[in-house]
Write a structure and sequence with these properties.
The complex is a heterodimer of chains A (222) and B (229). Chain A is built from twelve helices and no strands. With 222 residues, chain A is an all-alpha fold. Chain A is globular and about 50 Å long. With 229 residues, chain B is α+β, with helices and mostly antiparallel strands. Chain B folds into two domains: 69 residues; 146 residues, no CATH class. In chain B, the strands form two sheets. Chain B has a five-stranded antiparallel beta sheet with strand order 6-3-2-1-9, covered by helices on one side. The longest helix of chain B is centred in the middle third of the chain and has 17 residues. Classes of the chains: A mainly alpha (222), B alpha+beta (229). Chains A and B meet through helix 1, helix 3, helix 5, helix 6 and helix 7 of A and helix 1, helix 3, helix 4, helix 5 and helix 6 of B.
């Protein structure tokens, strides 16, 4: 390893250089000081979820409330679809927003799409709750008074909201692999729930999920 | 066990995001996430790429009392604040190279005047041995290590930048990880090799990092670690 020791040994530049720069006050002020009151005023004007999360990180409740107004319907829908019980979905939504309040800093640190980050938090909180409390499993046996109230998820692959690379890559999967992945992600089904739904052995389901993920990764990777 | 093999790691991360793992495996992954940048990237990949599927759930208005219950819980739950925010200020990184130097100096000043932290804080400016221009800024403290490109930051085509730490007196560098394509590497825990008098270096490696655990390509940036009192 050819390390230039002379350069490596160089110490932090002396303060003399930067003190003469005209914008030093601005730079330091933006780093050291955040005015929460001023931020609240801006909340109604900023529109993107990313901007709102940045304001939440600075401690703005108004930004969190705005985020809730914009996103709670979509996020509650995700939780309800997985939990199937309103009280569990509602608790998970509340836990998720408290977590967003506490952890908004993690979002801005990692970057990425805010909508996906929020949905992930809600999914994890809902899945946790379902793992703890169990889920009301609907059979499709009409004699038990149950019915599958959602159209089969495979029929919705043509949904206009699903497009682009993900649709192309899901279409390229083997039917069973695709079904497993969608039932897991959208309905939050465990391996054994998928096995029951597809009337397939548990071991096969596990391997379809893994193979499906492997193919998806290869297809989606840039 | 979190697998070291990249394919296995990606599949495990996919299963975590899908939600098919058992509670024990989920806990293990969540415990490993803060200290494993590779795992974090794999999880983020699946979260973002599978996200369009969540649109298949029908949006539904939550119960009307849900917001009030959230609001009532906020007082006891304070947002993560302080030092990490310094790194995340988008404005900080939008400056030109000259301004970035000033920002780095502010950072040093901030760390120097900030109340004493639980763990020692270090800063380093990494430069190309041939040029005086700062290329990377590293800040380390109680909440971990962040290395961020301030100029350029893109590795040559089909190559990766890998970050190394050389402890004072050590003969061999220790890998701190491959720097993602966006020129930003964050470690949740402060590696033991980060010490005053130590050195950070960035080498050019095959895509995905050195296959040997030691640098195999040229060292293109170096900087000394300086303790902030």
């Amino acid at each position: 390893m050819n390390l230039d020791r002379r350069a490596a040994g160089r110490t932090w530049p002396a303060a003399s250089g930067w003190t003469s720069l005209p914008f030093r006050g601005t730079v330091c002020a933006s780093v050291a000081h955040l005015d929460i009151g001023a931020m609240d005023d801006k909340v109604t004007k900023v529109s993107s979820l990313e901007d709102l999360l940045e304001a939440v990180q600075g401690g703005s409740r108004a930004a969190l409330k705005r985020l809730y107004e914009l996103e709670s319907g979509r996020l509650y829908g995700i939780a309800l679809r997985i939990a199937r019980r309103p009280e569990i979905a509602s608790d998970a939504l509340q836990d998720a927003f408290v977590q967003v309040w506490q952890n908004a800093a993690k979002f801005t640190a990692e970057r990425g799409a805010a909508a996906a980050w929020l949905a992930s938090i809600v999914r994890y909180r809902t899945l946790d709750a379902v793992r703890k409390t169990g889920r009301e499993v609907l059979s499709d046996d009409p004699s038990l008074g149950d019915r599958i109230d959602e159209p089969d998820i495979l029929d919705r692959l043509d949904d206009a909201r699903l497009e682009g690379d993900l649709k192309r890559c899901l279409d390229a999967l083997d039917d069973k692999q695709r079904r497993c992945i969608m039932l897991a992600f959208v309905d939050g089904f465990s391996h054994s729930e998928i096995a029951a739904r597809l009337a397939a052995p548990l071991g096969s389901v596990k391997s379809w999920v893994r193979r499906g993920l492997h193919s998806l990764r290869s297809c989606l990777e840039p | 066990m979190i697998p070291a093999d990249r394919d296995e790691l990606n599949i495990l991360a996919g299963e975590y995001v899908l939600g098919t793992l058992e509670a024990d495996a989920v806990r293990e992954i969540e415990a490993a996430l803060p200290g494993n940048a590779e795992l974090r990237r794999a999880v983020a990949f699946w979260e973002e790429r599978l996200h369009p599927l969540s649109h298949l759930a029908q949006p539904t208005a939550p119960p009307p009392q849900a917001w009030n219950r959230i609001a009532a819980r906020l007082d006891g739950a304070k947002p993560m604040r302080a030092a990490p925010r310094l790194w995340q200020s988008a404005a900080l990184w939008r400056w030109t190279t000259a301004a970035a130097t000033a920002a780095a100096a502010c950072l040093a000043l901030y760390i120097a005047i900030a109340p004493p932290a639980a763990a020692p804080s270090f800063v380093a400016v990494l430069r190309s041995p041939q040029q005086d221009q700062p290329a990377w800024v590293a800040t380390a403290g109680g909440s971990g290590l962040l290395v961020r490109a301030v100029a350029g930051g893109a590795a040559p085509l089909d190559r990766s930048f890998e970050l190394w730490a050389i402890a004072p007196g050590a003969t061999q560098p220790r890998s701190l990880g491959v720097i993602p394509a966006d020129g930003r590497l964050e470690l949740g825990a402060l590696p033991a090799t980060i010490r005053s008098g130590g050195t950070l270096a960035i080498s050019v490696e095959p895509k995905g990092g050195s296959p040997t655990g030691q640098p195999t390509g040229p060292v293109v940036f170096v900087g000394a670690l300086v303790a902030a009192r």
